[in-house]
C-alpha cells in the first residue's frame, strides 16, 4: 500500500531492532531494543549489547544518525529469524485519530462535496485520505461522517484492514440548524428511524450535532442548540439500545451539559465549556476531544492571510481558551482523546493529528502524556484496545511505529516515519 508499511503475516517470525523503544507505559526510552515477533504478536523484548559505535545515551531529536549497517552487532537471531534493523529509530505504538472526516480533504470544500455525487468520484478520494494516515503511522480512525456517508460506503465496499476504521456514516441534526453537509434534513421525529437505519447499515458510532459551530467572527458564539433535552436523551438511549455509543458535537456550556446529561460517550469540540462541565465529565468519565487544530490552524498557517485582523483576534482568543481548558481537564482527570477533525478547512489528512498533538504540547501537557493520549487513550475511547493496546509488551499485537529521533524529546520527529508494522489483519 505504502512503502513505509510492512504487514506481518501470521506465520512470520521476525526480529526488529532499533536504537530506542518507548513502550507506551514508561516515561523513558529503553535503549537498544530487540523485539521478537511471532504469530502476529510480540513474543519477547530485550536490549541488545552495547557497542562502541553506539555510545550515545539519547538520540539527538533532530538527527537522522547514528546509523550502522544492518546486523553489524554480529548477534545471532533466534530461530534464524530475519532481522529488520532500524538504525537511528525509536519504536513506539502506532497512533490513532479519534475524529476525522474522510469524505472532505481540508482544502477544497466545494470540490469534496461535488465528489459525493458519485461513488466513482469519492471512493478514490476517501482511499487516498486513509492511505495518507497509514503512511503517517496513524493506523486507526474514527470518522465523524458526512451527508453522503462516504467513509461508511468505503468501509463496506473496500473492507480495508488498515487503517482500522470506525465510522458514524452521517450525523443526526435538526433540519433547520448547522451542518447540512454532515447529515440530512430529516424532521426531528424521524431521526430515531435514521439512527436505526445507520446502525443496521454498519455505523459503529452515532454522531449527533447538539450545537452549532464556533464563530470565527464573533467570540463565544456557537449557534443554536438542535434538540430539547428530552429529544436528545431519547436519541442517545435509542443508540445505546442498539449497542452504539454517541459522539456528540457540542459547543457552549449549555450544549456540553445537554450532551452529558443525555449520556453521550464523547464530547467533540466543546468550545467555551466551563469548569463545571469538566467536573461532570471527570465524574461521568465522559471523554473530551477538544479539536484545537481546525481553529488554531486558521491563524497559525498560511490560512491566516484569508482572515481580516478582527477575525484573527477572535480565532486566537478562541483556541487559546481551549488550550487553557485542556490543561484544566487534564488536572481534573477528564478522559481526553485526540482528534484532528481532519477534512475540516485547513486540516489535512495524514498531518492534522501531529498538529493537534503539538497544540496539546504547547498548552503544557508533557510529550509522553500527549503520546499516551494519541495511542492508549484513543484506543480506549474507540474500544479497540484488543487490536491496538497502545503498548509494546510481550503478548501485545505486533503493531509498531518506527520514527527517526526521540519523540519524547520532540514530538515533531513523528513526521519522520521510517516504518509502520502491522499484523496483516487486526488480531
Ligand atoms: Zn468533525
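Q: What amino acid sequence fits the structure above?
A:
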Amino acid at each position: 500500500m505504502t512503502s513505509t508499511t510492512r504487514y506481518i503475516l501470521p506465520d512470520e517470525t521476525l526480529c526488529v531492532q532499533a536504537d530506542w523503544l518507548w513502550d507506551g507505559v514508561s516515561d523513558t526510552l529503553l535503549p537498544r531494543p530487540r523485539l521478537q515477533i511471532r504469530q502476529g504478536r510480540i513474543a519477547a523484548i530485550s536490549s541488545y549489547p552495547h557497542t562502541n559505535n553506539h555510545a550515545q545515551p539519547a538520540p539527538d531529536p533532530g538527527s537522522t544518525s547514528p546509523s550502522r549497517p544492518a546486523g553489524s552487532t554480529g548477534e545471532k537471531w533466534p530461530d534464524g529469524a530475519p532481522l529488520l534493523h532500524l538504525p537511528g529509530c525509536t519504536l513506539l505504538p502506532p497512533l490513532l485519530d479519534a475524529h476525522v472526516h474522510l469524505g472532505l480533504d481540508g482544502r477544497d470544500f466545494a470540490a469534496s462535496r461535488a465528489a459525493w455525487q458519485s461513488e466513482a468520484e469519492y471512493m478514490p478520494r476517501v482511499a487516498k485520505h486513509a492511505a495518507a494516515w497509514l503512511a503517517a503511522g496513524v493506523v486507526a480512525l474514527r470518522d465523524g461522517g458526512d451527508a453522503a456517508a462516504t467513509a461508511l460506503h468505503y468501509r463496506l465496499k473496500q473492507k480495508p484492514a488498515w487503517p482500522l476504521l470506525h465510522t458514524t456514516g452521517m450525523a443526526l441534526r435538526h433540519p433547520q440548524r448547522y451542518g447540512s453537509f454532515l447529515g440530512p434534513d430529516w424532521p426531528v421525529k424521524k431521526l430515531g428511524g435514521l439512527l436505526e437505519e445507520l446502525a443496521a447499515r454498519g455505523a459503529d458510532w452515532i454522531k449527533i450535532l447538539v450545537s452549532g459551530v464556533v464563530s470565527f467572527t464573533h467570540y463565544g458564539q456557537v449557534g443554536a442548540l438542535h434538540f430539547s433535552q428530552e429529544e436528545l436523551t431519547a436519541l442517545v438511549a435509542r443508540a445505546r439500545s442498539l449497542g452504539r455509543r454517541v459522539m456528540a458535537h457540542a459547543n457552549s456550556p449549555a450544549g456540553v451539559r445537554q450532551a452529558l446529561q443525555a449520556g453521550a460517550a464523547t464530547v467533540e469540540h466543546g468550545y467555551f465549556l466551563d469548569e463545571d462541565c469538566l467536573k461532570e465529565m471527570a465524574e461521568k468519565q465522559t471523554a473530551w476531544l477538544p479539536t484545537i487544530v481546525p481553529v488554531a490552524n486558521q491563524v497559525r498557517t498560511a490560512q491566516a492571510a484569508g482572515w481580516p485582523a478582527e477575525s484573527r483576534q477572535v480565532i486566537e482568543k478562541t483556541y487559546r481558551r481551549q488550550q487553557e481548558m485542556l490543561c484544566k481537564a487534564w488536572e481534573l482527570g477528564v478522559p481526553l482523546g485526540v482528534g484532528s477533525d481532519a477534512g475540516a478547512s485547513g486540516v489535512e489528512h495524514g498531518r492534522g493529528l501531529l498538529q493537534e498533538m503539538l497544540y496539546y504540547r504547547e498548552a503544557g501537557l508533557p510529550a509522553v502524556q500527549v503520546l499516551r493520549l494519541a495511542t492508549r487513550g484513543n484506543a480506549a475511547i474507540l474500544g479497540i484496545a484488543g487490536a491496538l493496546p497502545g503498548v509494546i509488551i510481550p503478548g501485545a499485537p505486533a503493531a509498531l511505529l518506527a520514527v527517526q529521533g526521540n519523540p519524547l524529546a520532540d514530538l515533531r520527529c513523528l513526521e519522520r516515519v521510517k516504518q509502520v508494522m502491522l499484523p496483516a489483519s487486526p488480531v
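Q: And what stands out in the fold?
A: Confidence is low (pLDDT under 50) at residues 54-75.
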